[in-house]
Amino acid sequence: MAAWSVIDRRFGRGENRSGLIEAAQHLKPDVIVLDVNLPNVDGLKACREVTQGNPEMKVIVFAAVDDPDVKRRAFEAGASAFVHKLAFDEAA
């Protein structure tokens, strides 16, 4: 499973932070979908790195836990939205 995806006219996905930073710089996406807790990627650190140099990029952070502290830290890192993964199961 990919830790991040870049959504734009082009599409990218990967499993490490350096790949995400490179894809963000090269593809200049409108939206990045980022999992906060997958192996090989510190989602909040990656979110901060992407948004610091590209404030126009939107980052949607997904998390398996609905933890207010994680949500707060995601927005502090520059996330535009936070989605609790189980929200999809609850809506079904």
Give a brief rundown of this model.
The protein is α/β, with parallel strands linked by helices and 92 residues long.
Report on the structure:
- The chain has helices spanning 17-27, 43-53, 68-76, 86-91, and strands spanning 4-7, 11-14, 31-35, 37-38, 41-42, 58-63, 81-84.
- The model has no long low-confidence stretch (mean pLDDT 79).
- It is α/β, with parallel strands linked by helices.
- It is globular and about 30 Å long.
- Helix content is 40%, strand content 29%.
- 27% of the residues are buried.
- α1 runs parallel beside α2 (43-53).
- It has one domain: Response regulator (Rossmann fold), CATH 3.40.50.2300.
- The two termini are 22 Å apart.
- The chain has a five-stranded mixed sheet. A two-stranded antiparallel sheet has the order 4-5.
- It has four helices and seven strands, in the order ββαβββαβαβα.
What is the topological layout?
Elements: E1 4-7, E2 11-14, H1 17-27, E3 31-35, E4 37-38, E5 41-42, H2 43-53, E6 58-63, H3 68-76, E7 81-84, H4 86-91
Parallel strand pairs: 3-6, 6-7
Antiparallel strand pairs: 1-2, 1-3, 4-5
Uncertain parts: none
Along the chain, the helix and strand elements come as EEHEEEHEHEH
Overall outline:
globular
Question: How many H/I helices?
Answer: 4
CATH homology-level superfamily: Response regulator
Query: How many domain units?
Result: 1
Q: What is the CATH domain class?
A: Alpha Beta
Q: Give a count of the beta strands, DSSP E runs of length 2 or more.
A: 7
Strand order of the largest sheet: 2-1-3-6-7
Give the proportion of residues in helices. Answer: 40-55%
Which structural class do the helices and strands define?
alpha/beta
- The overall pLDDT, averaged over residues, is 79
Largest sheet: 5 strands, mixed
The Rg value, from CA coordinates, equals 12 Å
**First-residue to last-residue Cα separation:** 22 Å
